[in-house]
């Protein structure tokens, strides 16, 4: 069977950028800048981009394109014992997409609530009490929240239609869903710069606090952000690479994708800080506090800011439409990574059928986050997946390509097909730098989680997180050992 293909290079880049650009750019990036030294944060961020982000992006695109398989098949072809690593990446993708879709469901609810700006005057209680109807603690699930469930169903129907024909439908969708949110961001920027106080926000965004560079936490945050923002270690970029021809460019595409993604983050920073500057002036709250409000930024602080401005309904609508459009390409890229692996394995099954099965399974897995304790569970699962599963995949994959397969061999292939040549530095990055940095991050995270229980959640709830972090990795190790012993026998 011939493999699916992107219809053009532009469509591929749009799809890759679409996956990379998401909530991480609009909410996580500005929040980290606010928390970790303003403009000074950009230094570790850019260093991480060049030393880890781009090398790994090149690596993943090259693996997929060379092996012409989804994530499980690609790893297997790289090294017959390592198919389990693909499974590890896929389990993470599946778990993440099941809650990422729930966050999108909240955005959908806000989109409708924009008519009449229903949260105005009580943004915080609107989010927690009305939208989430949150329970007192993770100990009480409190039943399913029907409006979130319905919104989740709608999101999954949308995702299904995006991926039902693989690259063909994805290719059609990304032509709109990738540029449109950037245009909407532009409209919001115009709004921001016509509000009083925006310049104070920008001053905070751009003024570097150099002392922050002495804090190791700032560096860890920058490296993890790069990992997350480029959608690395989920098998997505491998899958997307596998839909390109064997001799298509790799290195230049990777640089373009990475720069467009970080450019969007920087751009989003101007919008977010501009609006926060205005809000600080209106409400008398300190800017630092607003910027560091974390998860509440997109659903509490920003909605409140929107409600304060003239034409609030219109701009709220634009904002949540943008959030949905930003999120949907990331969501379906995760689902597509799972799809591709299933299609590789069961070639007789039509893509549409596989898509239905994957979407239904992930939607069902997501129901748990529509309970009244959904936000707590989401927080726990997100913490463990992004702190452990992703790092483990990242470490194993750089060892696999760098050491077992051979970085130089892969680099030769990349240079044979790419418009831009990749220097020997890439071998060093893949073999030494990436695994070293990721192991350091992993150890730092582990020692912190063992010292203090994450966010003070009860032991039973954190146990779910540990199970998610440990079991897939153990399965991967077992598969590795079984394969190795079969090979010897
Ligand atoms: N890169 C996305 C963002 O920045 C998040 C994401 C991670 C999406 C992994 C898909 C897979 O929001």
Q: How would you sum up this structure, described in words?
A:
The chain has 489 residues and is an all-alpha fold. It has one domain (9-488): Amino acid/polyamine transporter I (Up-down Bundle), CATH 1.20.1740. 77% of the residues lie in helices and 0% in strands. It is built from 20 helices and no strands. The protein has helices at 9-20, 23-35, 42-67, 71-78, 83-113, 123-131, 146-163, 167-177, 179-193, 198-206, 216-229, 236-242, 251-283, 287-291, 296-308, 312-345, 351-366, 374-417, 425-451, 459-488. Helix 3 crosses helix 4 and helix 5 (83-113) crosses helix 17 (351-366). It is globular. The mean pLDDT is 93. Bound molecules: phenylalanine.
Bound molecules: phenylalanine
- Any idea what the CATH architecture is? Up-down Bundle
Shape: globular
* Oligomer kind: single chain
| Computed Rg | 22 Å
Q: What is the arithmetic mean of pLDDT?
A: 93
Alpha-beta classification: mainly alpha
The biggest beta sheet is recorded as: none
Helix share, percent: over 70%
Would you list the SSEs in sequence order as H and E? Answer: HHHHHHHHHHHHHHHHHHHH
Counting structural domains, the number is: 1
> Can you say what the CATH homologous superfamily is?
Amino acid/polyamine transporter I
CATH class: Mainly Alpha
pLDDT < 50 runs, ≥5 residues: none
Sheet-strand content, in percent, reads under 5%
- Count the strands? 0
| Amino- and carboxy-terminal Cα gap | 33 Å
Q: How many helices?
A: 20
CATH topology name: Amino acid/polyamine transporter I
């Amino acid at each position: 069977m011939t493999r699916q293909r992107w219809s053009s290079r532009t469509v591929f880049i749009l799809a890759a950028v679409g996956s990379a650009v998401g909530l991480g750019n609009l909410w996580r990036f500005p929040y980290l800048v606010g928390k970790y030294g303003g403009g000074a944060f950009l230094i570790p961020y850019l260093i991480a981009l060049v030393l880890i982000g781009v090398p790994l992006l090149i690596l993943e695109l090259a693996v997929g394109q060379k092996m012409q398989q989804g994530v499980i098949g690609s790893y297997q072809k790289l090294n017959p014992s390592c198919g389990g690593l693909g499974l590890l990446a896929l389990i993470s993708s599946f778990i993440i997409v099941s809650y990422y879709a729930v966050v999108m469901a909240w955005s959908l609810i806000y989109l409708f609530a924009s008519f009449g700006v229903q949260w105005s005057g009580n943004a915080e209680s609107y989010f927690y009490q009305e939208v989430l109807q949150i329970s007192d603690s993770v100990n009480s699930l409190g039943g399913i929240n029907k409006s979130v469930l319905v919104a989740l169903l709608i999101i999954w129907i949308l995702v299904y239609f995006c991926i039902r024909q693989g690259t063909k439908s994805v290719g059609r969708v990304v032509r709109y869903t990738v540029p449109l949110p950037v245009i909407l961001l532009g409209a919001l920027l115009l709004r921001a710069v016509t509000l009083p106080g925006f310049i104070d926000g920008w001053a905070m965004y751009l003024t570097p606090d150099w002392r922050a560079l002495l804090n190791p936490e700032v560096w860890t945050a920058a490296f993890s952000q790069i990992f997350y923002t480029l959608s690395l270690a989920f098998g997505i970029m491998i899958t997307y690479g596998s839909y390109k021809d064997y001799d298509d460019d790799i290195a230049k595409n990777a640089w373009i994708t990475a720069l467009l993604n970080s450019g969007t983050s920087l751009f989003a920073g101007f919008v977010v800080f501009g609006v926060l500057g205005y809000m600080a002036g209106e409400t008398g709250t300190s800017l630092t506090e607003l910027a560091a409000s974390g998860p509440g930024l997109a659903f509490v602080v920003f909605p409140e800011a929107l409600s304060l401005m003239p034409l609030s309904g219109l701009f709220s609508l634009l904002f949540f439409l943008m959030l949905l459009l930003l999120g949907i390409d990331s969501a379906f890229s995760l689902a597509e990574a799972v799809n591709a692996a299933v299609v590789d394995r069961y070639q007789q099954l039509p893509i549409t059928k596989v898509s239905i099965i994957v979407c239904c399974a992930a939607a069902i897995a997501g129901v748990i986050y529509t309970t009244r304790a959904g936000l707590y569970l989401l927080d726990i699962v997100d913490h463990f997946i992004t702190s452990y599963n992703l790092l483990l995949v990242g470490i194993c994959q750089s060892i696999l390509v760098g050491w077992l397969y051979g970085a130089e061999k892969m680099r030769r292939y990349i240079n044979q097909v790419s418009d831009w040549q990749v220097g020997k530095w890439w071998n060093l990055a893949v073999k030494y730098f990436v695994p070293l940095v990721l192991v350091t991050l992993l150890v730092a995270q582990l020692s912190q989680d063992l010292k203090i229980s994450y966010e003070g959640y009860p032991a039973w709830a954190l146990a779910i997180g540990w199970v998610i972090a440990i079991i897939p990795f153990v399965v991967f190790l077992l598969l590795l050992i079984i394969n190795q012993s079969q090979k010897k026998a």
